Amino acid sequence: MKIKYELLHREKNSMGRYGSLQTNHGTFETPMFMPVGTRATVKMLTPEELYDCHAGIILANTYHCWLRPGENLIAKAGGLHHFMNYRGPILTDSGGFQVFSLAKPKDISEEGVKFKSHIDGSNLFLTPEKSIEIQNKLDSDIAMSFDECPPYPVTHEYMKKSVERTLRWAKRGKAVHQNENQSLFGIVQGGEFEDLRKWSAEETVKLGFDGYSIGGTSVGEDKETMMKMIDYATKYLPEDKVRYLMGVGEPMDIIEGVIRGVDIFDCVLPTRIARHGNAFTRDGKINLKNLKFREDFTPLEQDCDCYTCKYYTKAYIRHLITCDETLGGRLLSIHNIRFLIRLTEELRKAIQEDRLLEYRDQFKQRYEAKEKKH
Amino acid sequence: MKIKYELLHREKNSMGRYGSLQTNHGTFETPMFMPVGTRATVKMLTPEELYDCHAGIILANTYHCWLRPGENLIAKAGGLHHFMNYRGPILTDSGGFQVFSLAKPKDISEEGVKFKSHIDGSNLFLTPEKSIEIQNKLDSDIAMSFDECPPYPVTHEYMKKSVERTLRWAKRGKAVHQNENQSLFGIVQGGEFEDLRKWSAEETVKLGFDGYSIGGTSVGEDKETMMKMIDYATKYLPEDKVRYLMGVGEPMDIIEGVIRGVDIFDCVLPTRIARHGNAFTRDGKINLKNLKFREDFTPLEQDCDCYTCKYYTKAYIRHLITCDETLGGRLLSIHNIRFLIRLTEELRKAIQEDRLLEYRDQFKQRYEAKEKKH
Asked: What does the mean pLDDT of chain A come to?
C-alpha cells in the first residue's frame, strides 16, 4: 500500500495545514518532526525511546546504510524495520545530499555521481536508478528521488541546468521504482529563484509522486532566503499530497515552515547538540556545561513530559556531560527530540484553532528573548 | 534501619549459601552480581534498564563521586539515590582501591593516603574518617571501611603490617560512622597467607560490622591463589552476615566464589567488555566485530530473556559496534549484566537443590570448551 495523506484542517491566516499520513507501519498526524537515524540507529536511542517521544516517523540515510552494512545485508534481515527493530514508519533519503556534501572528490555527469567513499576512499557510483534500487532493498515506507544538490549561491543559469537534470533524474528513478509497498517522493529544487522553484514544482508534480520534498535549503542561505525558497515551492504543490522540508530542525524554522504549508521536517540537530551538552528549552538553547547549572536540581523544563525531565535534574545531567558519560547525551537527545515533537503537537493544535501566527509570535518572543541572554 | 541478612539455605556439598538481604531500598536474594556505577551512572544505562536486568543492588565509587561532582553536591541533591534517580539499594566502596591503583604518586602514612587527583593533579588526602564522612554524605545503603590495598605479591611481614593497619583503619572508620540508615562493612585482607586471612577475618569480626568484604583479590594472582584467598577468608566469617567479594566478575570466578560461601560480587567487566564489542554467552565470550557474525540474524543467546536478545540480532549489534554507534555498547552492556545476574539466579536455584558442584561442572564444560575454540 502507498501512503495516504489526509488534509484535516487548513489554517485560516496562513498556509498551515493539519493532516494525517497513513503508512504501512502506522498513521501519524502532521506537522511532524522526524528524528534522524543515520546508520539505521537514531544515535544513542532505542526504538522504545523514540515511541515514547511520540515520533511519528524516522529517517534513515541511504548513503550510510549503503556503505555500512550494505543494502543487501539489510534486505536479508527483512528490510530496515526488521534490521533495526523499528515498527513505526521509516523514510529513506536518496543519498544525494551525502554524496554532494560528504564524499569528495566527485565527478558529476548526466549518468550520475562518481565519488570516493568517506570511509575507505573506494570508488563509488550513485545514479538515480541505483538510489531507488538501494531504497527498494532497504524497504522503507517512503523513498526519495535522487536529486542534484547544488551549492549556494549559484547563478540562475547554473541552477536552471541543475533543475533540468534533477527532473530527468526524478523521471529515471520513478521508472525503475518497483516496490508497491513503498511510496516515492519527488524533490523540488531551484534555489532562491522563484521562477525555477515554480517550474521545478510544477514539472515534478506532472511526473506524479506520492509526496513532495523541498530540497536545497539549509545550505548556507540566510533565514529570509530560506523562507522565500519554501514559499516559492509550497505555493505550487498540490493540497492533497504531503510536503517534506529536508534538513530543517531549528524550532523557529519549523514554525515558519509550518506557516508556509510544510508537513514534515527532519534534522540531526536535536541529537547532535545533545551530544555536545545542549538542550532546547522554551527560553532558548542552554548548555549544561555552564557552571550555573552545577547545583540546579530542577529538570531541563518544568512542564516537559519527556523521560529526562520526569526523572533527572540539570545538576545530574551536567555531571554526566562533564564526565563524558554517554547517559548525558542520551538523556539530552530524548529531551531534544521530544521538544521538537511537542512543538509540532502544539502547532497542530494552533492550526486547528486558527491561531498559528499568534502561536509563532508568542513562541518567538520567549525563545529569542532568552536566547539573546544566554 | 541497618541491612538484615537471612540465610535461607546452606548447600550440602559446599559452602554455598542462598539468602536474602533486606535494605532500606528493597530486599534482594543472594548470591547476587552487582553492576558498577562508577560516577553515579552504570555506563550507558538507565536505572530502568538495571531494574529490567533484575539487578538487586548497584555499586557507586566513592573516589569518583568525591572528585566529581563532590559529595556535598550529592548530599544537597538528597544523596546518591535522588541524584542518580536510582530507587534500589546502592553500595559505595571506600575509595581505597582507586586511591591505591589510579592515583599516583602517593604517600601512605598511618593517618591516611596523600595522593594526586587523576583528573587535575591536585593534592588530596584520604583517611578512614574522611572515607566514611564522604560515604555518609553519599547516603548509600552500604558503606565500606577504608582499607590498605597492598600490591601482589608481598612478603608475609609486609602483609602482616598492612593487615594491622587495615584493622586500625577499620576501627577508626567505625568510630566516626554516624548514619543510622547506612550499614558498614569490614574488609578482610591478608593476601594469600592463610594465617593472616584468618587473623584479619577474626579481628575484623570482633570489631563488629553489618557485613564483610573480601579484599585483595584480582590484583595479579593466579586463579588458584585467588580461590585460596577466598577459602581462607569465608571460613572465618560468621554465617549470619552477608559476604561480598570485591572486583570479581568472570563467570567461573563467580561460581567458584559462590561455592566458597560468597554472597555478593561486583565488577566493571560486563560493561567494559561490552564497550569493546564483547558479549558473554554460555559458550564463552564472543566478539561481535568478528566477521562471522556479519549475517548472523540470531540473538546473542537464544534462551536469554534480556531486552537485547529479545529484539536484536548479532548482525545488527555488529553493525552498530563497527560504526561506533553507542547503542551497540548499550545493548551489549544490558546483555552482559543480565547474563551475570541470570547466572546468580541459577546459582541460587542450584544451592536450593543441593547441586551446586554439578552446576559448576556443567557450566564450566560448556563455557570453557567453546572459549578455547573462539
From this structure: 96
Q: Is the ipTM of this complex over 0.95?
A: yes
**Domain ranges (residues) in chain A:** 4-267, 268-374
Distance (Å, whole) CA B129 – CA B321? 44
Nearest to A327 among B41, B68, B313 (CB): B41
CA dist A181 and A143 (Å) reads: 11
Q: What is the architecture of the domain spanning A4-267?
A: Alpha-Beta Barrel (3.20)
| Residues A29, B208: Cα–Cα separation, whole Å | 64
Q: Looking at beta carbons, which residues of chain A come within 8 Å of B318?
A: 69
Instruction: Based on the residue annotation, tell me whether A93 is a catalytic residue of this protein.
Output: yes
Cα-Cα end-to-end distance for chain A: 48
Pull the grid cell for residue A299.
529538570
pLDDT at B105 > cutoff 90 = no
CA neighbor of B328 nearest in space, from B338, B314, B342 = B314
Judge contact between B243 and B212, C-beta under 8 A: yes
How far apart, in Å, are the Cα atoms of B64 and each of B77, B119, B131, B284?
17, 10, 12, 32
To the nearest whole angstrom, how far is the Cα of B200 from the nearest Cα of chain A?
Answer: 37
Catalytic residue, chosen from A52, A266, A305, A361, is A266
How many Å lie between the alpha carbon of B329 and the closest alpha carbon of chain A? 10
Q: For position B373, what pLDDT does the model report? A: 57
pTM above 0.90, yes or no: yes
Closest-CA residue in chain B for A78?
B297
Question: What percent of chain B is predicted at pLDDT more than 70?
Answer: 98
The cell 595479579 sits on which residue? B220
B370 pLDDT tier (thresholds 50, 70, 90): low
pLDDT confidence of residue A106: 80
Confidence category of residue B102, pLDDT binned at 50, 70, 90: confident
- Write down the CATH superfamily of domain B4-266: Queuine tRNA-ribosyltransferase-like (3.20.20.105)
Tens of pLDDT, residues A139-155: 999 999 999 999 999 99
Q: Band of the pLDDT at A371, cuts 50, 70, 90?
A: low
**Among A343, A362, A370, A373, CA closest to A284:** A370
Q: Which among A39, A319, A327 has CB closest to B46? A: A327
Segment A318-329, tens digit of pLDDT: 999 999 999 999
Q: A44, B326: Cβ pair inside 8 Å?
A: yes
Distance CA A134, CA A72 (A): 8
Which chain A residues contact residue B294 at CB under 8 A?
69, 73
Q: Are A168 and A187 in contact (CB under 8 A)?
A: no
Sign of CA dihedral A344, A345, A349, A352: positive
A231 is catalytic: no
Contacts of B76 in chain A (CB under 8 A): 295, 297
Catalytic residue among B240, B266, B324, B354: B266
pLDDT of the residue at A49: 98
Chain B residues touching residue A69 (CB < 8 angstroms):
294, 315, 318-319, 322
Mean pLDDT to the nearest integer, A146-166: 96
Q: Provide residues of A within 8 Å CB-CB of chain B.
A: 39-41, 43-47, 68-69, 73, 76-77, 83-85, 294-295, 297, 311-313, 315-316, 318-320, 322-323, 325-327, 329-330
Determine the distance from the C-alpha atom of residue B236 to the mean position of all C-alpha atoms in its chain, rounded to a whole number. Answer: 21
What average pLDDT does range B80-89 have in this prediction? Answer: 98
> B52, B93, B195, B354: which is the annotated catalytic residue?
B93
Distance between CA atoms of residues B134 and B71, nearest Å: 6
Which grid coordinates are listed for B65? 563521586
